[in-house]
Amino acid sequence: MGDQMTSNRMYWVDAFSAKPYSGNPAVVCVISQELHDDQLQALAKEFNVSETAFISGGGGEYFIRWFTPTKELPLVGHATLAAAHVVLSELEPRRDEVTLVSRLSGRLSAFRDSGNLAMVLPADTVKPCDPPDSLCMGLGKPPRQVLKGRHYVAVYDKATDVQSLKPDFLCLEELDLPTIAATAPGEETDYVLRFFAPANGVPEDPVSGVAQCSLVPYWASHLSKSELTSQQLSPQGGNMFCKLLSDGVQISGPCCTLVSGDLINY
Active-site residue among 34, 46, 51, 97? Predict the structure, then answer.
């Protein structure tokens, strides 16, 4: 690892958006003075965005952890892209790529990609399953097909089916998996999605990168193409460019920083 930064800093980043107040907000905290887990969780609760990423390191390699307002997660997409944005735009702007190391998910790569940022996440294999009652009741509309892997994947016939869902989050919290991706063929993009994680403290994720771990392999197989475009139909909304690789899923998009500052330790 390279030289440590001299103070703890925070950056508020809109991921998957080239302009402020769109995409999915994430807070990236650059840690040089050690914080305990309860302090990390307290900061994530205070920021109250879907995920806060904590990174430390240098020389193109950083350890990373992700917290929602209520718990630590093993893998997050948009906050990983936001962390790469902070490294490549603020901390080490002369670099073109960075490695982010998670004790729960291993080594993740991110790099500049035609004016955007791209990251590679592990691909997920989903298999058809019987629809759990709490899934159908929680989504409010039975899907055409349900699959299970890292997430539950609920497949609908039309984008309007996904757009019109009015989830019962208390019902979805009863599932054995905490995350649910609802998806359908798109009209202007290859497919659309919404992503729900109420058990993780995130009722609906504005723009989800980690959902693509399951959706990219699924749609690549069904559409017989390895490069895909997707649109998230949350109120915030966002588009993602995805590729199915031999070693994972590549997801790319822009990021922008809204504000940065020092973190005060208590």
Answer: 51
Q: Within this chain, do residues 99 and 135 fall inside the same structural domain, yes or no?
A: no
Cβ contact 208:24 at 8 Å: yes
Number of domains into which the chain is organized = 2
Residue range(s) defining the domain that contains residue 90: 9-121+252-262
Q: Which residues pair with 127 in a beta bridge?
A: 148
Q: Number of H helices and number of E strands within the chain?
A: 6, 18
CB distance 14 to 21 below 8 Å: yes
User: Does the annotation mark 51 as catalytic?
Assistant: yes
- Convert the pLDDT of each residue in 199-234 to its tens digit: 999 999 999 999 999 999 999 999 999 999 999 999
DSSP code of 263? P
Residue 114 and residue 179 in one domain:
no
Compute the distance between CA of residue 92 and CA of residue 83 in angstroms, rounded to an integer.
12
Identify the burial level of 134 via C-beta atoms within 10 angstroms of its C-beta, where 0-12 means exposed, 13-18 middle and 19 or more buried. Answer: middle
Bridge partners, residue 239, by sequence: 231
> Would you say residue 5 has pLDDT above 70?
no
Q: Do 160 and 68 fall into the same domain?
A: no
Examine the domain organization and report whether 102 and 170 are in the same domain: no
